[in-house]
């Protein structure tokens, strides 16, 4: 009798598992369904914003990225692209603010400091530009371009301070130094490697 009872229990267990298996879809089916149901707004919005920017429709790209970052304020890629679009549109204050948000989320992202330096240079803020390039070099200390850019900024700072000194007490030594720096910087409106628009530098396309 005991053996019959065990067989009955086993049969019922097998029947239960068969019924349960028919109710639960396979893992692969569930994964496919989850993939179909997962919102793809992030990928779609960022891809559309990039397409709009390439087409020169920067304000449309900004509007789309602003909507995206309101929905997902920690979307680093969307924020990074939005900061670059603000910079292209000349909205420097918004660009700086947005890059700072990116920095808070991804402090290891070096490229944003190069982009911030470019914005400060455009505004004539040499001290701020030098600070951002030093921050860049903390993340990428072996970058020859970054060292060259920082040297260029320091040369511009030196020229500015020599001019101020010469205004207060003119002299042949200061004049000679000013002339030497002016010759060295002649024809260089921006540091090497900073001619690209913000957000389009090396490694800056996808944080």
Structure description:
By secondary structure, the protein is mostly helical. It is built from 10 helices and no strands. The chain has helices spanning 2-23, 27-37, 41-54, 58-71, 76-88, 92-105, 111-122, 126-139, 144-168, 172-185. Mean pLDDT is 80; it is low at 8-39 and 195-207.
Please report which band the strand proportion falls in: under 5%, 5-15%, 15-25%, 25-35%, 35-45% or over 45%: under 5%
- Main pleated sheet: none
What is the terminal-to-terminal distance? Answer: 70 Å
Structural class computed from helices and strand pairing:
mainly alpha
Percent helix: over 70%
Mean pLDDT, all residues = 80
Tally of extended strands? 0
**Helical segment tally?**
10
H/E topology pattern: HHHHHHHHHH
Low-pLDDT residue intervals, each spanning 5 or more residues: 8-39, 195-207
Radius of gyration based on Cα positions: 29 Å
Mass-distribution shape: elongated
Q: Short summary of the structure?
A:
This protein has 207 residues and is mostly helical. The protein has helices spanning 2-23, 27-37, 41-54, 58-71, 76-88, 92-105, 111-122, 126-139, 144-168, 172-185.
Q: What keywords describe this structure?
A:
10 helices, mainly alpha
SSE topology sketch:
Blueprint: H1 2-23, H2 27-37, H3 41-54, H4 58-71, H5 76-88, H6 92-105, H7 111-122, H8 126-139, H9 144-168, H10 172-185
Helix pairs in contact: 3-4, 3-5, 4-5, 5-6, 6-7, 7-8, 8-9, 9-10
